Amino acid sequence: MGFALGSPRTWQGCLCHDIVLEHADIRLLVNDGARTELSRAVTGALACNRTLLGWTWTCADIGEAARAIGSRSGVELAHDPGTTCLQVPTELTPGALTLLEAVDGADAPVDHPNAVSSIDHLVLMAPDAEQPASVYADNFALRPRVRDLPRGRYAFLKAGETILEISANREAPAPAAAWGLALQSADITRSVASAQGAGHEVSGPNKAIQGGLIASVIDAPGGIPLAFMQAEAKD
């Protein structure tokens, strides 16, 4: 689809490739059967038929981050001083396997042939958008902005340069499920052409409810709903 993949490597017991973006990476995992703690967590997530498992939040000091989360949530995040990756208890992060990861001096962003530059937003589906939004607000100090839009009720929480979008869907698993992601493109026409050239069906571009343009990949690899977005041009 026009992404430049990093070399395969082992990450916490799983085979992985990274797609390096401007403000975040996309990590593609293959559970290789290793008996590490994370591999068990990934196996559990896959048992729920999830292909988008969740996300890692990078931090300069895992211990400080764990103490801050524990202070807000009342749940202790036990860790060793040398920990470089720490799983957050699932009750604190509805719908997503969430980890704290030490900053590791990642490679510089790559200019992908499909014009994708960053993750615009990640999507959680939930029966009620406000309930999981309040959990993230209470435990991580993310401020939800709830809006009624033509397609339903949404909560938006800004985490660094990325938006966590929670969409209300009465048929979604309770309390929530990681669902899909939207990628920011500098040239959505190029992104669409790249996906189509790889044999994928794409809907759009159309006007996005957030503003700008959006195009959805109907049959995205791995079964993860995927969209390209292009921001509105500034005058």
Spell out the key features of this protein:
235 residues; alpha+beta; 2,3-Dihydroxybiphenyl 1,2-Dioxygenase, domain 1; 2 domains; eight-stranded mixed sheet; three-stranded antiparallel sheet; 14 strands; 19% helix; globular
Please, could you describe this protein's structure?
The structure is a single chain. The chain is of the alpha+beta class and 235 residues long. It has helices at residues 37-47, 62-73, 130-140, 188-197; strands spanning 9-11, 14-20, 25-31, 54-59, 85-87, 97-102, 116-126, 144-149, 152-159, 162-168, 177-185, 202-207, 213-217, 226-230. A hairpin with a 2-residue loop joins strand 8 (144-149) and strand 9 (152-159). The protein is globular, with a radius of gyration of 18 Å. The protein starts with 8 loop residues before the first strand and ends in a 5-residue tail after the last strand.
